[in-house]
Specification:
Layout (H helix, E strand, L loop, with lengths): L1 H14 L1 H21 L1 H13 L2 H17 L3 H25 L21 H20 L2 H24 L5 H7 L1
């Protein structure tokens, strides 16, 4: 269901990028103003964007899968790797297909020069971090699983809004990533 909604959103953005940008602008400006008004929020958003990048999440997922394999939890390891890699593949195909430009108010560094829809950080946050949280939730004793799973879920789900606070994605990019 979520994938179907994401595809429908991708089609809408691809057909009317200028119109979608105009509709997103007020919400984007609110998030950006929120980030500008709070150094703490900006630092948290930057950290979430940093940890949520494929360069950091990818190795974490691999180490997580290796630990699962060492614990003879090969089904969970395969599940984690499959979901994460399939998520990255879907995100990359959508980015190339839609080719949406990023919001206009930020000077992008070399890592932000790519296209905008969907947010790869958000997509990766859900496919990698939320999935790790699910695995931990089912495998660990309840006291540990509650804390560790919730931590993974927070990182995974807050990565999307963090991209709005730092001003590198449109709101529909984050929704498409979710």
């Amino acid at each position: 269901v979520l994938l179907s909604i994401g595809v429908a959103l991708a089609v809408a953005v691809a057909r009317d990028e200028v119109g979608m940008d105009a509709r997103d602008l007020a919400v984007n400006q609110w998030f950006r103003d929120l980030g500008v008004s709070s150094d703490v929020l900006t630092q948290l958003a930057e950290w979430l964007s940093w940890i949520g990048s494929g360069r950091r999440t990818g190795p974490i997922v691999i180490v997580f899968a290796v630990v699962l394999l060492a614990l003879r939890q090969w089904r969970w390891a395969v599940f984690q790797l499959l979901v994460t890699e399939l998520g990255y593949l879907i995100s990359d195909v959508a980015k190339v297909s839609v080719s949406r430009q990023r919001p206009p108010w930020v000077d992008f560094g070399p890592l932000e020069l790519g296209t905008s829809f969907p947010s790869g950080h958000t997509f990766g946050g859900v496919t990698a971090w939320v999935t790790m949280g699910l695995v931990l939730w089912f495998l660990l004793p309840r006291a540990w699983s509650t804390v560790l799973a919730a931590s993974c879920w927070c990182v995974g789900l807050l990565t999307g809004p963090s991209r709005l606070v730092v001003g590198v994605h449109w709101v529909t990019d984050v929704l498409g990533g979710l």
